[in-house]
């Protein structure tokens, strides 16, 4: 099975958890886009949901598919969010932000009664950290912020690479909120909670890509089938 087909399989399984009338947070990235596609097909058959997007890209995709969209200002509580991840460990701790949407993704997931993560098996890890941890930082005081990050008391010092829009145009990537992304190669992160706490104390860091205690369920598609980590279907969300 291709990686694309695995993403579709996880996305379609997540659709089973969506009930008519739910308020649904829509994630960002190629796997989340498969879920939006699948939901769009269901909506085209008359299924009614109201959704909030975690990025402008997802918002545009969902609108084009005829999905009814709202905002967290109008719907401050959502029933469920479905999103992808860059890494998932056995305790449902995640690294997210590969698509640069981590701030809105965390706001939307935290405003939801439950979060389902969908991924292909390549995202499942023993210990987080092979994927560089994305941080959303304000442009003001960037050099000072990077100094503070590299001074954090963690094994591998790292000030973070400023993410570029493309490799060639020399312009930094800007998030939907106008901020920058620093990709931090901290190496293995055996204690994500501690790193999360430390990063929260750096004023220029708006948010970091560690999602701890947020995801309730992960649907992971591998060539040997689907694996579900987390709450049983019967009591979720
Ligand atoms: O966190 C994200 C975007 O900010 C994505 O969910 C994450 O990068 C996974 O993306 P993909 O499904 O394309 O591998």
Automatic annotation (TrEMBL):
This protein's UniProt keywords: Isomerase
Binding site for substrate: 28-31, 83-86, 96-99, 123
Recorded GO MF terms: ribose-5-phosphate isomerase activity
List of catalytic residues: 105 (proton acceptor)
Catalytic activity field: aldehydo-D-ribose 5-phosphate = D-ribulose 5-phosphate
Superkingdom assignment: Bacteria
Single GO biological process annotation from the record: pentose-phosphate shunt, non-oxidative branch
InterPro entries from the UniProt entry: NagB/RpiA_transferase-like (IPR037171), Ribose-5P_isomerase (IPR050262), Ribose5P_isomerase_typA_subgr (IPR020672), Ribose5P_isomerase_type_A (IPR004788)
Pathway terms, separated by semicolons: Carbohydrate degradation; pentose phosphate pathway; D-ribose 5-phosphate from D-ribulose 5-phosphate (non-oxidative stage): step 1/1
Keyword match Zinc: no
EC number assigned by the record: 5.3.1.6
Subunit structure as annotated in this protein's UniProt entry: Homodimer.
Function noted in UniProt: Catalyzes the reversible conversion of ribose-5-phosphate to ribulose 5-phosphate.
Stated family: Belongs to the ribose 5-phosphate isomerase family.
Name of the protein: Ribose-5-phosphate isomerase A
Organism: Hyphomicrobium sulfonivorans
Gene from which the chain derives: rpiA
